[in-house]
């Protein structure tokens, strides 16, 4: 299964509904490209809905970290929601949870962007 990225706008935040795998190759490249395009078009509030992500490999984790860093450097904010347990455990094991702003659900995440 490839990575499907469905963007939508909600309360001034760009929500990317992700479905599939974030793995080395085309999938990781498409997510990276999407984030860069959003930042280039001055959309700096980005929410990644990870609820339908079935797998993330080490390259995918690196891509997520890179996206968080790039967004912060551009003065933006990136949040993750609906993080599957497996991906949460991988981030926890590698001590990467603190690299991300992780919210329990979309409503909580949208409210956090208002700060």
Task: Please provide a written account of the structure.
The protein is globular and about 30 Å long. The protein has helices at residues 26-40, 58-73, 85-93, 106-112, and strands at 4-10, 13-22, 45-56, 77-81, 101-103. The model has no long low-confidence stretch (mean pLDDT 94). It has a five-stranded mixed β-sheet. Helix content is 41%, strand content 32%. It has one domain: Transcription Regulator spoIIAA (2-Layer Sandwich). Helix 1 (26-40) runs parallel beside helix 2 (58-73). The chain starts with a strand and ends with a helix. The chain has four helices and five strands; from the N terminus they run E-E-H-E-H-E-H-E-H. It is α/β, with parallel strands linked by helices.
Entry keywords:
five-stranded mixed sheet; 5 strands; alpha/beta; single chain; Transcription Regulator spoIIAA; globular; 115 residues
Kindly report the average pLDDT value.
Answer: 94
CATH class: Alpha Beta
Number of helices: 4
Q: Give the C-alpha Rg.
A: 13 Å
Strand order of the largest sheet: 1-2-3-4-5
Q: Strand content of the residues, in percent? A: 25-35%
Q: Total domains, how many?
A: 1
CATH architecture: 2-Layer Sandwich
As for the CATH topology, it is Transcription Regulator spoIIAA
- Low-confidence stretches are none
Range of helix content: 40-55%
Shape: globular
Main beta-sheet strand count, sense and barrel state: 5 strands, mixed
Name of the CATH homologous superfamily: STAS domain
- How many E strands? 5
Helix-strand makeup class:
alpha/beta
